[in-house]
């Protein structure tokens, strides 16, 4: 490993070249071997190179007694290198997987720390990438999962970068030995009950004894699969562009797609496009649990199918599929009087109402549909509200959330629907701004 004496810093610098204009580099610093080497490399490169401001962030999970001493160790290392350190204590939520819960808490802290035009650097290396590939293969992952850890991805308002994915654990150990670095040995890394530790200590030594290049070739396979995933993403964008036709209800602010454009694709392309569209919004089902999509797609025209996913629901209405989450799925509070119709009225978990023009005489009230509402329309007489909504093709999931303007028992207006949304003479209008997508995301 003699080449690491001069090679490692230059390789790291080349990898990070595209990010040298960032406003700040944060380093995820556990105090272990990998992040200690990365911190040392960056701190010394900063002495001879023009690099962004560098700081470290240590996340304390509070899961084991030994960890209480780690922040102080990390502080002493950072002080010696002249790198500011932020220690963040997080609460790990109980759940089936302690590993996942700790990761979620850790990355929550990273997201909060990483602002616009900033990057978070983490120290996963080539051996980690190989372990990730095998771990996900054993869990039945698809192409995306088998792509391994990406070199870069969005994180909060900035980006996460993994600059050591071409570096082996042996190279990091050699660098640490050469520079007499000290680091934390996490006792949990020896616990074979954790799947990754089992692979690292029980499986990979056997593989490497038979195939010495196993780590390298598996990491290379992950790179090939990452390229394949890029092509699948490109195909998904092409297919989604065909399905992103405008709807008659753009004012809802909800993500939606034209069902016919998706239905004409092969089953595999449907799943690929939908996965790409849903991924920023929810955790996706595994390949055995896509029957909900088939039911939604194939339902008869008068059906009201719903596909319930981890973080929201897909509804079908008006020849489209609609994504609902957050406030859109919460029960509505009882509406009531509009104290001052000249001012906007905030509706709990249901957006904002405004009246424009000549405000009608009061007192005015807001109610939600109960069934049987009648509206008096000029030239048409009394009309059933349900029929009026049917005529306009209002999606079923919207109807119960439409705020209705009443004066006593008289239904005066239904917002946003032309001909139903204001005075006879057009001298006033009722407008509803529903929850936008950001508010709707859980």
UniProtKB/TrEMBL annotation:
Judging by the UniProt lineage, the source's domain of life is Bacteria
Keywords in alphabetical order, please: ATP-binding, Cytoplasm, Ligase, Nucleotide-binding, tRNA processing
Pfam families, per database record: ATP_bind_3, TilS, TilS_C
Residues noted as binding ATP in the record, renumbered to the chain: 30-35
Principal localization reads cytoplasm
Q: What SMART domains does the database record attribute to this sequence? A: TilS_C
What functional role does this protein have? Ligates lysine onto the cytidine present at position 34 of the AUA codon-specific tRNA(Ile) that contains the anticodon CAU, in an ATP-dependent manner. Cytidine is converted to lysidine, thus changing the amino acid specificity of the tRNA from methionine to isoleucine.
Q: Into which family does the record put it?
A: Belongs to the tRNA(Ile)-lysidine synthase family.
**Annotated protein name in UniProt:** tRNA(Ile)-lysidine synthase
The primary gene name is tilS
């Amino acid at each position: 490993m003699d080449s690491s004496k001069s090679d490692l810093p230059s390789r790291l610098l080349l990898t990070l070249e595209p990010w040298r204009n960032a406003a700040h580099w944060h380093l995820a610093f556990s105090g272990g071997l990998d992040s200690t080497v990365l911190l040392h490399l960056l701190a010394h490169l900063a002495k001879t190179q023009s690099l962004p401001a560098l700081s470290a962030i240590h996340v304390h999970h509070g899961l084991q007694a030994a960890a209480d001493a780690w922040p102080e160790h990390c502080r002493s290392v950072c002080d010696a290198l002249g790198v500011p350190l932020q220690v963040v204590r997080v609460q790990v939520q109980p759940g089936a997987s302690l590993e996942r819960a700790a990761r979620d808490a850790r990355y929550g802290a990273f997201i909060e720390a990483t602002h616009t035009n900033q990057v978070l650097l983490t120290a996963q290396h080539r051996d980690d990438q190989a372990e990730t590939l095998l771990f996900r293969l054993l869990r039945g992952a698809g192409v995306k999962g088998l792509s391994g850890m990406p070199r870069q991805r969005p994180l909060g308002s900035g980006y996460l970068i993994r600059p050591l994915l071409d570096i082996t654990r042996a190279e990091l150990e050699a660098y640490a030995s050469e520079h007499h670095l000290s680091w934390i040995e996490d006792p949990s890394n020896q616990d074979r009950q954790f799947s990754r530790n089992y692979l690292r200590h029980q499986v990979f030594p056997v593989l490497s004894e038979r195939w010495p290049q196993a780590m390298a070739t598996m990491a290379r396979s992950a790179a090939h699969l990452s390229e394949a995933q890029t092509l699948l993403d490109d195909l998904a964008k092409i297919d989604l562009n065909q399905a992103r036709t405008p709807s008659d209800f753009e004012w809802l602010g909800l993500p939606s797609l034209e069902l016919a454009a998706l239905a004409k694709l092969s089953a595999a392309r449907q799943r690929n496009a939908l996965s790409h569209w849903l991924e920023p919004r929810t955790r996706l089902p595994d390949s055995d649990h896509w029957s909900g999509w088939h039911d939604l797609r194939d339902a008869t025209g008068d059906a009201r199918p719903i596909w319930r996913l981890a973080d929201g629901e897909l509804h079908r209405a008006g020849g489209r599929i609609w994504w609902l989450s957050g406030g859109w799925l919460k029960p509505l509070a009882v509406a009531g009087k509009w104290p001052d119709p000249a001012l906007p009225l905030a509706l709990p978990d249901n957006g904002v109402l405004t009246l424009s023009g000549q405000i009608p005489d009061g007192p005015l009230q807001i109610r939600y549909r109960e069934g049987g509402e009648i509206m008096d329309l000029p030239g048409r007489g009394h009309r059933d509200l349900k029929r009026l909504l049917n005529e306009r093709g209002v999606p079923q999931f919207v109807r119960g959330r439409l705020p209705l303007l009443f004066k006593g028992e008289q239904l005066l207006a239904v917002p946003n629907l032309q001909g139903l949304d204001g005075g006879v003479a057009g001298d006033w209008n009722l407008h509803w701004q529903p929850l936008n997508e950001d508010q709707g995301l859980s």
